[in-house]
Amino acid sequence: MVNELRWGVVATGGIADVVTGDLRLLPDVEVLAVSSRALPKAEAFGARHGIPRAYGDYHDLLADPDVDVVYVATPHAQHHEVTRAALEAGKHVLCEKPATLTPAHLRDVVDLARERGLFLMEAVWTRFNPLIVELGELVRSGAIGEVRSVRADFGFTVPHDPDHRLWSRRLGGGSLFDLGIYPVSLAHLLLGEPEVVHAHGSLVDGVDAEVGMLLGYPGGAHALLGSSLVSPLKESAVVYGTEGLVELPEAMYNPSRMIVNGVERRCEQEGAGYVPQLREVVRRVRAGETESPLMPLDESLAVMRTLTRAAEQVGLTYEDVTTG
């Protein structure tokens, strides 16, 4: 393998901007190429981040033989299309969450990555936050006894605009798949895939404005979760065990402090918080591995199943908008 792992970035929106900034903090990594549907946008993004190659079509970036890894940062509805094309082009892929909008599309790219022996991971940065990693270890060690309940929310107010990506059904908008994925992923990390999913929410223009979820597990353990685009939820989480509790007082999706049975623990954030996730991709690709044990593909499939079960109960579906 070459000394530097060479990355291509597909799309130039806000998340691509922040993640690319963190990517450039890693040693032995070169952000080689960027693509946008509008070439001037790709060129401007490239100039801002010191990226030498700009393309006006992601197919051109995928055809670049020097690109090793592709970071997919398009709107949700294009994730499946771009990820599949990248894998077909022989590229390793880190795709923003949700990796796709339907279980069938996720299974499609997972099977393709495994068939081709390529690395694929859904970019759920929460799973790589040092405190979340520590939380998982605490729970597995029995530090708070048996987990009986997880309560977590993530929401903020977004003025309604049918052209905004969060309110646009054709772009895969809504609170559940963009924000609710974080509380659901946390519940999966600590309790696994639920037996029962109950969800209630409201729809606006075919996307969910808010969703409340109750996930049920054998023996009565449960998770109470929420996501919203119409109210400022606390963005906190509490994990209740039979012998104690853990609190994530703010930014449960990327916490900087955690309170374990009343004792506070803190971590320093690297860059904007995406560095641990990106470092994991580099480590696994260099080692010739095709998945991360911190965010394995089977876990992405399980979380997708839970999200879909909740979506169906509030009348949310993307089956007819995830083509290509």
TrEMBL record:
Ranges of residues in domain Gfo/Idh/MocA-like oxidoreductase N-terminal: 5-121
Gene Ontology MF annotations: nucleotide binding; oxidoreductase activity
SUPFAM superfamilies registered for this protein in UniProt: Glyceraldehyde-3-phosphate dehydrogenase-like, C-terminal domain, NAD(P)-binding Rossmann-fold domains
Domain of life according to the entry: Bacteria
InterPro entries hit by this protein: Gfo/Idh/MocA-like_OxRdtase_N, Gfo/Idh/MocA_domain, GFO_IDH_MocA-like_dom, NAD(P)-bd_dom_sf
Keywords, alphabetical: Oxidoreductase
Ranges in a coiled coil: none
Domain GFO/IDH/MocA-like oxidoreductase: residue ranges: 134-246
Family: Belongs to the Gfo/Idh/MocA family.
Protein name according to UniProt: Gfo/Idh/MocA family oxidoreductase
Organism from which the protein derives: Saccharothrix syringae
